[in-house]
Amino acid sequence: MHIADGIIDTRICIAAQVASLGLIYLSGRRTEADEIPKMGITGAALFVISLIHIPFAGTSIHPGLFGLAGIILGKRAFPVIFTVLLFQSFIFQHGGLLTLGVNAINMGAGAIFAMLVWRKKFLPESVKALLAGFMGVFIPAFLMSVEFKLTGYGKGIFVIMSVYVLAALAESVITLTVVKFFRKVKSDIIN
Amino acid sequence: MKKSVTLLVFFFALGLFNHVSAHGIHIDYSFKYPSVSLNIYFSKTSPVVDAEVSIFSPGSGDVFVSGKTDKDGHFAFNPDVPGEWTVKVDDGMGHRKTVVIAIEDFSDQLVSGPVHAEEEEAHSHDQPQIHDHNHDHENGQGHIPLVYKIIFGLSLIFGITGVWYGLKARKK
To answer: Which of A1, A41, A87, A99 to probe by mutation at the B interface, max B CB count within 10 Å?
Structure first.
């Protein structure tokens, strides 16, 4: 999911960098002090969780928890994801600096979609959690495929989606489990 | 003023990051006549599989041999002359690495076959004729244990949010 430098068209990368800075401002302004500890804890979880690699279908996948970040943080998930990706890029060489904006927008979009699903009032909470978890992986994977296509890769790149659909299903189960856990022990975190 | 200091600390921390960050690809080598064996990996448990490896002859700069790493990230070639051999690795996913391997006293071996006892003694170990110009650089940057990296990253995340929270709370 983390796109490394040198793969995506540089123009797309630069446009995404600029857009992501704008999105950080929009999603991070007027942050209340009470929200900051939650952002720190969620950021730490996101930072570490990506190290759990699961070999799958000739490649490896890892949980991202972007859907869960959207549920817990709402729009504040975007600056958190951007910061986490920046640190992952520096420390673990996951992704790249030039593609930081692209990766942040991909994964941040997953979190924002998850937030929108989570706020739908007419769905049962379990269904919302499952859908949010699914969106947290599916949307970034879809955007990634589109960016590859725009760069000039063949349509075959969309095959990658099939791998990520399975990863998204696994992540939706993880998200549901965590949501149920929070509902029991500290309900206000996900309200 | 305080904000400026916080920003300075932050950018200083980024500078440190830049210092400790390494190339994604690491290359270990071993030489036992007649082959140079390369072990190419991202981390000890993550070999660079199916990466394009190009070997350039000393001096001429021509491609001597090229191929791909196997499922364990291994690649081997048989140098035919002594000198500085350039190894370029490209995994096709944005990770690239170039190292220079210097093979000394190679002609003796080629001519005489097995290395003489005195020469072995002079070099004191089995693979002395080979050294990587980037090796010190790699040792300095490439082998920070993962757990340290995790602690480092988490410390930064908690540190930044802590400072941010402190500033916000004070404003309130």
So the answer is: A87
Helix residue spans in A29-159 (DSSP H): 35-49, 66-73, 77-91, 100-118, 125-151
Q: How many domains is chain B built from?
A: 2
Q: Tell me the residue range of the domain where B17 lies.
A: 1-22+144-172
Give the chain A residue whose CA is nearest to the CA of B162: A37
CATH of the domain at A89: 1.10.1760.20
Could you tell me if B36 and B46 lie in one domain? yes
Distance CA B48, CA B52 (A): 10
pTM of the complete model = 0.63
Cα B83 from Cα A80, distance rounded (Å): 50
Looking at the domain assignment, is residue A4 inside a domain? Answer: no
Which tens digits make up the pLDDT trace of A67-118? 999 999 999 999 999 999 999 998 988 888 899 999 999 999 999 999 999 9
B131 pLDDT band, cuts 50/70/90, is very low
Which of A22-26, A51-55, A182-186, B146-150 is least confident? A51-55
What 3-state DSSP class applies to B37?
strand
Q: In this complex, is the C-beta atom of B147 within 8 Å of any C-beta atom belonging to chain A?
A: no
Structure tokens at B34: 């007649």
Q: How many domains does chain A have?
A: 1
List chain B residues with CB under 8 Å of A53.
46
